Structures are given as structure tokens and as C-alpha cells.
UniProtKB/TrEMBL annotation:
Coiled coil: none annotated. The keyword Transcription regulation applies. One of its GO terms (biological process) is regulation of transcription by RNA polymerase II. It holds the Pfam family Med6. Component of the Mediator complex. Residues 1-28 are annotated as: Disordered. Belongs to the Mediator complex subunit 6 family. One of its GO terms (cellular component) is core mediator complex. PANTHER family: MED-6-RELATED. Keywords: Activator, Nucleus, Transcription, Transcription regulation. The keyword Nucleus applies. This is Mediator of RNA polymerase II transcription subunit 6. GO terms for molecular function: transcription coactivator activity.
Amino acid sequence: MIPPAAANPALDGGAPPPPQMVAPPPPGTDMTGICFRDQLWLNTYPLDRNLVFDYFALSPFYDYSCNNEQLRLRATHPLDLSHLSKMTGIEYSLSEVLEPHLFVFRKQKRDGPEKVTPMLTYYVLDGSIYQAPQLCNVFASRVGRALYHISKAFNTAASKLEKIGY
């Protein structure tokens, strides 16, 4: 089987290959509302820990200026920690794997062999790729929803009290 990075879909009658230097979205761009899925790729290759990074690299979440891309250009496995730990900059690491259904990627900034700062989390769930929401956004949403329902309850109670004369 030809690995996805070496296959040429244009010659195989498939879609043209994705552009290699697509600019990543600007920092701070919220992409939690986007889902990426390439059914042709999924029908062609198995989704396992060896090929999931090649699949993730097709998505709009992937930053082509990352350290993993430099390793791919050197024909080294892009998740090889022995090479990544010697580099500095943005990288992706595979943090959780429940083959073949769930793969969790962490985008992080590496400042040294032991110093990494997590930035964002992405997950591949049954072939669909998503950006996980940041914890502060989840809390803000939950608190906002709770405040809405509390306010609605007080308004309902106030209107019922007005009806009975209080």
C-alpha cells in the first residue's frame, strides 16, 4: 500500500492534491464550528495511529509551518518525539488514541526539550476532525445558560406574585 503522502491522486483519477502552502488561519481564530471529513481518503486508507497524522494534515486545522511538517519534508515520521523534542516552535502531538474511532491531537509550542505550552486540542472522531472548545469558552457558555434560566425563573416568579397581589 502506498502511504498517503506518496500517493498522487491526480494520476489515480482522484481530486487534485491539496496546495502544500496553505496559510493557516490567523491566531485566535475560533474554528470550533468547523468539521473536516475526507470520505475519499477514509475509503482508501485505514485510520490508525500510523496514518492519522497524514489525514489530519489535510484539514484546515493543520499549520504547514509547524515542526511536524519539517519532519515530513525530511521523510521522517511527523510524530517522532526523538526529533520533535530537539526542535523549537509549533508542533502537534498525538495525546490520546482509541483506535480506530478516536484520536486526540494537541497543538503546542515547544521552547525546549522538556518545555511545552499547550495551545489547542483537536480530535478525530470516526473520521471527522474537530477543534475542541477551550475550557474558558465552555465555562462561559454554561454560566451564561445558567444565568438565563435563573433570570427566567425569577421573572416567572415575579409575574405570578404580581397576579396574587404581592
